[in-house]
Amino acid sequence: MNVNKRHSTSTVDNAEKKKFKQDFPIARFEHLANELIYEIFDHLDAQQLHQSFFSLNQRLQYLCLNANLSLRIGMSSASKTIFERSFNDMISHHQHRIRSLYLFNPFVIDYFTISQCSQLQTLTLGNIEWERLESVLITLASAPNLVSLSIYIGGVGKQATVYSLVFQLPALKSCKLNFQTDAPLKLSAISINSVSPIERLIIMDNYSFDEIN
């Protein structure tokens, strides 16, 4: 009796599974339309995109190279070899579409021509030399869409120069400056005659309360 009940239940289950497969056929990823794959791509940063899809087949490689994406580049821990492969294979083809850069490896920033990143909106920099930072900020003066900037830098450097250059950025709305240094800030060297569009400013630096004005 119990055997017949189990057999009957199994038959019903199999029939339901078969009907489910007919009503909702299982699609393979490679069978998805290009538009759906682009939607998936848009949720990944460039490193994830390259590692996950670029080498799978010719179609996905073509889509990686030709997708009209606004890329996010988040290179905080990638080795130089891995980054170079990603940059040469794919990222270099999309510099004009990059909208977000998160760069904490000191060698990575040298691969990007900031002036070519015309769509850049968000930039985070860390572990960068003071001289290189100054050069980048000068270049960013011609970045029309940069609205958010975060900088993390240590050691003794030209804080006043960095402040002056940041306040001259034409479209900047949000800025976080984290100067991990014990060197006192010399406010007399900072120009206060310029007008900045910054609406949200976070400063972590070494200065006295009386110097805030």
TrEMBL record:
It comes from the Eukaryota. SUPFAM superfamilies: RNI-like. This is F-box domain-containing protein. It comes from Adineta ricciae.
